[in-house]
Amino acid sequence: RKEVEQDPGPFNVPEGATVAFNCTYSNSASQSFFWYRQDCRKEPKLLMSVYSSGNEDGRFTAQLNRASQYISLLIRDSKLSDSATYLCVVRPFTGGGNKLTFGTGTQLKVEL
Amino acid sequence: GAVVSQHPSWVICKSGTSVKIECRSLDFQATTMFWYRQFPKQSLMLMATSNEGSKATYEQGVEKDKFLINHASLTLSTLTVTSAHPEDSSFYICSANSQGPNSPLHFGNGTRLTVT
Fold this sequence. Notes:
By secondary structure, chain A is mostly beta strands. Chain A is built from no helices and eleven strands. In chain A, 0% of the residues lie in helices and 53% in strands.
């Protein structure tokens, strides 16, 4: 089983749609969780950290379910500019030398 | 926000040559930087942790003599791909924390290496 698993997609959605991605992680001791966005042939950029209580940033909402070991990202009112690959990122241990583990990413395509 | 700058953005070289990639933290000091590699349609894979003033820590399966890392100052780490071969063609990305080990990483813009 991969340490971090994501559905690769692509998810093709119309502009204005609401779309959600899930990510599962295998290490129950994982402490920190992030969603990054990666555009084609570019470096990953931090979208948001994921907190235990769930958090929201504009149209983006992240949730963490420790019992089931999954993380979700919800995007409301999708824009064309949201088209990208969304990477689920997990840090196994607190202060664990920053050995982040990346999922392979979920590709989102927002269409007119 | 924290900025990590990486150069060059892309490089094409012949097999057998060596390529140096620079990673700089522009507005913060980074005692630790990280080098990742990403092949098409795959995850980012950590290659090594670069430590200022000491030897880098390499991940299992990464040849330290092939991927030389130097972290001579608090704002600069370099990765040299020695005797590059076509299978080394990949997207190399450096990263660093600006706010301590538990904060998210900020990435450089990446270097796309093509070895012919």
